[in-house]
Amino acid sequence: MKNLPFKTDHKFILPFDVSLEVTDNCQLSCIHCSVDRLKEDLPFKELQIILKKLMLMKIFNLTLSGGEPFMRRDIYDL
After folding, report:
1. Which of 43, 40, 36 is nearest to 77 (CA)?
2. What is the pairing mode between strands 61-66 and 17-23?
3. What pLDDT is stored for residue 10 in this prediction?
4. Burial class (CB in 10 A: 0-12, 13-18, 19+), 75
5. d(CA 43, CA 27)
6. Beta bridge partners of 23
7. Which of 22, 13, 27 is nearest to 51 (CA)?
8. Whole-number pLDDT of residue 61
9. C-alpha to C-alpha distance for 20 and 76, rounded to whole angstroms
10. Is the pLDDT of residue 75 over 80?
């Protein structure tokens, strides 16, 4: 890759930190919030696939966010 501020032999650079919005659901109604509560959550299986790919990429830090991630009934199964 050209014009990088450091030397690398890699053809691409993997993300160091990923923030994954697992839901838009939230029990609050904050006026500053821009979450679209009309969207449906990704199905559990799709989130599992995304998480497995992130694991294979060896992401250093993963943040589960959203609306409120604990509003997902399957959050602990992810």
Report:
1. 43
2. parallel
3. 61
4. middle
5. 20
6. 66
7. 22
8. 92
9. 15
10. yes
Q: What residues does 64 pair with on adjacent strands?
A: 20
Average pLDDT over residues 51-67: 88
Residue that is written with structure tokens 């029990």 in the block: 27
Question: pTM for this one?
Answer: 0.71
Q: What is the pLDDT of residues 4-57, one digit of tens each?
A: 555 656 666 778 899 998 988 888 888 888 776 667 888 999 999 999 988 888
The residue assigned the tokens 């199905």 is: 43
∠ at Cα 34 (27, 28), nearest 5°?
Answer: 15
Q: Are 32 and 74 in contact (CB under 8 A)?
A: no
Distance between start and end Cα atoms, the chain? 35
Rounded Cα–Cα distance for residues 60 and 18 (Å)? 8
φ/ψ (deg, to 5) at 18: -125, 135
* pLDDT surpassing 70 at residue 2: no
